[in-house]
Amino acid sequence: MPKNDFSFELITHDDNARLGKINTPRGIIDTPAFMPVGTQGTVKGIFTDDIKKTNTQIILGNTYHLLLRPGIKILNNFKGLHDFMNWDKPILTDSGGYQIMSLSKLNKIDLKIGAIFKSHLDGKKIILSPEKSIQVQKSINSDIIMVLDECPKLTSDKKILSDAINVSTHWAKRSKIEFGNNKKKALFGIAQGGLFKDLRIESIEKLKEIDFDGYAMGGLAVGEKQSEMFKILNETIKYLPKNKPRYLMGVGTPSDILGAVKEGVDMFDCVMPTRSGRTGLAFTWNGKVNLKNSKYANDKTPLDIKCDIRQLNKYSKSYLNHLIKSNEMMASMLISLHNIHFYQQFMSEIRKNVKNGTFLDFYKKYINLFN
Q: Measured between alpha carbons, how far is 231 from 121 in angstroms, rounded to an integer?
């Protein structure tokens, strides 16, 4: 395991698609990378050791939810989330900015204070300031820390989006001060601006003035069309520094990822693999497979004959269909594990094709398969 400082190396590119490597004291992250979401210290339904076997190099945790449960005291007692959940590789933590949007009915924004939440668990008042968010992420012992931002809902109102940029920039400056100087960890800024090119560029330029270790595109994958997301990435991602990681938050389907890699994105996270697994939807090299469908009731073939993690290649589609119809929890566990494995295979093939200069062929083959 490397004992070096956080760093990013851009190895090569194929048009705008990039191949890189993030170095952290807890391990290397090959990019483009997909981060399974472990919001509350668990990637839902999957054993930690099995996550490692899928060649996952980094997972995501969430500041707001981990602040509520298990709380800072327990996290500090374990010196962070890694030991608490038995994960020895890098962790990135979302700052709580997404919860400002997703739990909007339970919070209000104050530029000077931060986000003031009414806990969705017990109704208690929770103040998540930019400083508090960084402090909690330090207790989690995150390897990549995100600034607290205001993530607005999908809107065409430029004033709402402009106000969110102002709040997010102010909080980003405070987050940077609270983060301090720690070369072993990274602090990422988050650009907002919705689907407006001028606002996105404004947000990016303001963040570049503060200077972060990496940059994220926030406020996308919030209900806009896929084509709209690709368009704004195409128009604005070139304004991000070339020598630092680019992270598209909350994305997405395999085709979302493929299209974003084409525009130059390096990092992704999404609940899609496990959430889909819990509803009986599997991702395969032949596209999506809805295992609830009765046409699989007598199908003896596995989802992936080559996947031997937990002997997944020994379970037939017929058996999985039976588990789903019987409401057995094993169904969601097996399909979620399969999906994470597929996503990591998919990312590996993306990296291989960028390296070989054949990414565009790979893109054309798979871009429409998962829509």
A: 38
Longest dimension (CA), the chain: 61
Catalytic machinery residues = 94, 269
Burial (CB count within 10 angstroms: exposed 0-12, middle 13-18, buried 19+), residue 135: middle
Burial class for 88, CB neighbours closer than 10 Å (0-12, 13-18, 19+): exposed
Strand boundaries in 150-254, DSSP class E: 186-191, 214-217, 246-248
All domains in the chain, ordered by first residue: 58-270 (3.20.20.105), 279-371 (no CATH)
Q: What is the pLDDT of residues 267-318, one digit of tens each?
A: 999 999 999 999 999 999 999 999 999 999 999 999 999 999 999 999 999 9
Using alpha carbons, list the distances in angstroms from residue 337 to 47, 95, 278, 308, 309.
Answer: 9, 26, 10, 11, 8
With a threshold of 0.90, does the pTM exceed it? Answer: yes
Q: Do the Cβ atoms of 296 and 320 come closer than 8 Å?
A: yes
Among 272, 266, 235, 228, CA closest to 250: 272
CB atoms within 10 A of CB 173: 17
d(CA 151, CA 58): 23
- Side-chain half-sphere exposure of 193, counting CA atoms within 13 A: 23
